[in-house]
Amino acid sequence: MTAIISLRKSSFCQVFPLVSIFLFFSFISFSQSEAQESVTEPGNLQPVTLQLKWVHQFQFAGYYAAVEKGFYKEAGLEVTIKQGRPGMDFVEEVVSGRADFGVEMPEILIARNQGKPVVVLAAIFQHSPQIILARADSGIRSPHDLIGKKLMWRFDSAAELRAMLANEDVSLEKINFMELTWDINDLIFGNVDAISAYVTAQPFDLEKAGIESAILSPVNYGIDFYGDCLFTSERELAEYPSRVKAFRDASLRGWAYAMDHPEELMSIIRKKYRAECTLEYMQNEFEHINQLMLPKLVEIGHMNPGRWKHIGATFVKLGMLDPDYSLDGFLYDSYLQPDDYAKIKKIVWVLLSVIALIFISAILLLVFNRKLKKEVLERTGHLESEIAERKQAEEALHENQIIFQSFLENSPVYIFFKDHEIRSLMLSRNYEQMLGMPLHDIIGKTMDDLFPSDLAKSMIVDDKRILNKGETVTVVEELAGRTYETTKFPISIDQKTNMLAGFTVDITDRKKAEQDLQKSEEKFRNILENLMDVYFETTIEGIIQYCSPSAEVFSGYTIDELIGNKVAMFYHNMQDRQRLLEELSKNGHVREFEILFKKKDGGIYDVSINADIYYDENGQPAGMTGTIRDITQQKKLKEQLYRSRKMESLGLMASGIAHDLNNILSGIVSYPELLLMQLPEGSPMKKPLETIYDSGRRAADVVADLLTVARGVTSKKEVLNLNAIILEHLQSGEHQKLGQNYPGIVVKKELDPDLLHIRCSSPHMKKILMNLLGNASDAIEHKGTITIKTANRYLDKSLAGYEDIQKGEYVLLSVSDTGSGISEEDMNKIFEPFYTKKVMGRRGTGLGLAVVWNTVQDHDGYINVSSSETGTVFDLYFPVTRDELTADAKTLPMKDYLGNGEKILVIDDEKNQREIACALLTQLGYSAESVSSGEEAVRYLEQNAADLIVLDMIMSPGINGRQTYKRILKKINPKQKAIIASGFAETEDVKETLKAGAGAFIKKPYILEKFGTAIRDELKKE
User: Fold this and answer.
1) According to the model, what pLDDT value does residue 341 have?
2) What is the spatial distance between Cα 762 and Cα 746, in angstroms, rounded to a whole number?
3) CB of 106 closer than 8 Å to CB of 226
4) Cα–Cα distance between 667 and 1006 in angstroms, integer?
5) Contact (CB, 8 A) for 159 and 107
6) H or E element in which residue 31 lies
7) What is the 3-state secondary structure (H, E, C) of 652-684?
């Protein structure tokens, strides 16, 4: 009986505490439920997802701010923000539960009345950003101007745009609608006349392309909708009302922060969320969003039911919403607030608790006796059950020991346990291979016993920290040329840390692979950083994602300015971009595609592009990669090569003409000279013959110009002072005649008295002066000034038109005028032979500047020309020589070069040339014979001797002068004396003949003094 009473007391004492505990935990459960529904304890955040309506950009800045500034976490929320994509149903994402909250336009009201259980929480934009955008030059200024035009937009959106058209009585059937691609290039290139757009984005893209925009905004036509509404589902609001309130409040708090700190949010969006837009783009976006939100005037998130009714009425008018629609349950403000729910819950929980207490008390009274009997039976079998459980536990422990030991025996990972003295307790079998000793010899050893000293000390420090502070440590260690990564952690028994364990992984191969990858990346980076060409990666829309450092030098922009920007900004002609895209679309790649690019400073340059389209995992075009090469200089070199070949061709033509003219002029120059020598004083024929002779000499000067153009003319260079040559020319009859033709022009001299000497041909220097002064006079025509300047200069940098110059001392000859200047178009052609702007019939042959150019080249000099509307300056640079001046050459009297009956053989295929040469030789006192070909000359000399031969170089048909002379030297007389006479420029044949032994090269037409002097000098040679 005592035992039973004891049991009853024991049971009764156990039951009532249970009742109390139940009631206590009921209240606790209520409190915890309430706390969990309202504010989650730190470290236990509720995860929620926000679905955006587009990709990351400043349009959603408030949500990023709430994440980055911790507003969501303070509200007990862990928020994930998902980007949108084209074609995504944002309402369905929230209703289906794939997202808890979303962002949508006012069309969400239509979704609500189509059965979608959504609730709008806040209107972020007080005005909609949607507009119709056109080019300013399209003529579209009002909705009526869209009639008959191509308009690109989304039919499932842009309700306010449809309302605008309806308000203006513009029928949709009168507009040619096209599917919206969001590609601004369709508008830029005229594929469409207008597009539906956002005022925060596309007008900026149009402006960057240099195109003025025209905007049709619904607000200007009586349509004013909200924009970017924050919403959730009825299920979310019903189950987690406090969470909805917390999310809404934290989001609006984030928007307030974002609008006060735009620059900070722009940086976060670009760096963390990798937005593919430039800083300039986001600044433009912020400015427009600020105007749409009006945060200083209207509370962020504010919604007016009356305005929603106006929006609904507009939808009804457009046929997008039933007339009997309802706003009931749609607006968040119409719901009970979380505090009201809490009060109701509390009352319900209290009532339930009281009812539960009464009910449980009644039940306890009924079952008390049964419980008492049951306890007696349970106590009886308790010992038996306990014995059985202990036996099962021992068996389970033995089984676990077998499993654990098997794991240690076969683990590929090194596993270890150490005691509080840091001795090895248990190890996996693979330690035998690592340490080279049996496992039983390792157990019980310290780290000093097993590992090298430095490694052991490091291990002991880590192990003590784990045992003393309860930390988990991961370290990387080197042993015997292998690399290991070890993770160690404490093991506590009865709340006391008295051992540690860990596992070690051999990461040698992984580390080597990482190192190889790093080397490969560094190699690739070095290649890119030192690449002269630009390597680039873009999206399929042309947004730059990466470019090599050379792009900064290449474009003038910094890398930060380039990343996120569009390649389209570089095109000088947008038609080039269209051609490039067509080629890429057709072939998937382009090779050496040449177009014009523009730099940041506006400079234009030629580029060659190699590019390939790359594809995503679905086989869709994802972007482009390629290289860009600056070929501006290469094209200039090609142009220079073209001009050089052109000059060479013209030179060959000029040489041929000169040869023929010299042969013709021989009779005009040589015969008058002979006749003048034979005429008596006072003969009436003297003046006409002098006129003929002078005309012939002047014609010979023109031929000399042709030879100079041919760049084969032989000029004797002497050490002279350019000042003396200038002064001599200014006293010449040629210059005096120029002054008579242009009496209003003043010629000024600014000659450096300390001018250094140059090695030059005086006649050619005078020819340069004559041509430059003549051209300057023609440029001025009436009144003006020509300035001749000389100076000493040191050149150490390139001049325009020259890739490289020889550094050193130069004499500058500068001829400037106050004329009308040379046009940019003419500047590239002024040195071409026969190019002239002079009126037909006036002086000039078109050879003047070509002669100047070739003479300067022949003297190893440089030319720099600058011109404007106020005049032109020709700067000529000639290398300085430190040699002494050449003594003045004097005209020889005829008696000094007369012959003494020596026999001269003239070899020439032109009959009149043979006759002229023989007549001159006879006049000079020589015995002259002539033959008409090289072959005839060889036959003649086989039978007859000649003291000297006069050898024409070009003879046809038959062998030429060089071949003739070599046959004579080889077969007849190896010491045969000869001079060369030719109307052609000095050629390779002339040079070889001179090397073979010929004495001199004289030009036709024959001048008596030069002809006689050359023969006399050669005959005197031994």
Assistant:
1) 45
2) 24
3) yes
4) 9
5) yes
6) helix 2-38
7) HHHHHHHHHHHHHHHHHHHHHHHHHHHCCCCCC
The 10s digit of each residue's pLDDT in 737-746 is 888 888 889 9
Closest by CA position to 578, among listed 586, 149, 616: 586
Helix (H), strand (E) at residue 731: none
| 3-state SS, residue 778 | helix
> Residue 934: which pLDDT band, with cuts at 50, 70 and 90?
very high
d(C-alpha 489, C-alpha 462), whole Å: 10
Nearest to 338 by CA among 38, 739, 719: 38
- Phi/psi-derived region of residue 306, left when phi > 0, alpha when psi is between -120 and 50, beta in every other case: alpha
Cβ neighbours of 10 (radius 10 Å): 12
Q: Give me 832's structure tokens.
A: 């071409």
Say if CB 748 and CB 786 are below 8 A apart: yes
Alpha carbon of 551 to those of 276, 466, 590, 599: distances in Å? Answer: 19, 52, 20, 10
Q: What's the rounded Cα separation, in Å, for the pair 244 and 240?
A: 6
Residue where the block lists tokens 């607000």 = 219
A 10 A CB-CB count for 664 gives 18
Does residue 686 or residue 557 have the better pLDDT? 557
Which residues, including other chains, have CB under 8 Å from residue 894's CB and lie 6 or more apart? 1008, 1009, 1012
Half-sphere exposure of 762 toward its Cβ, with a 13 Å CA cutoff? 16
Contact 254, 69 (CB under 8 A): yes
Banded pLDDT at 824 (limits 50, 70, 90): confident
* Residues 662-673 pLDDT 10s: 666 666 767 777
Taken in order 594, 595, 597, 603, the sign of the CA dihedral is positive
CB 771 within 8 A of CB 848: yes
CA 11 from centroid of its chain's CA atoms: 87
pLDDT, the chain, mean: 81
- The structure tokens listed for 138 are 């399209």
pTM tops 0.85: no
In which residue are the tokens 């060479």 written?
A: 648
Which residue carries 């336009």 as its tokens?
105
Query: Can you tell me the mean pLDDT for 969-986?
Result: 87
Q: Are 1002 and 681 in contact (CB under 8 A)?
A: no
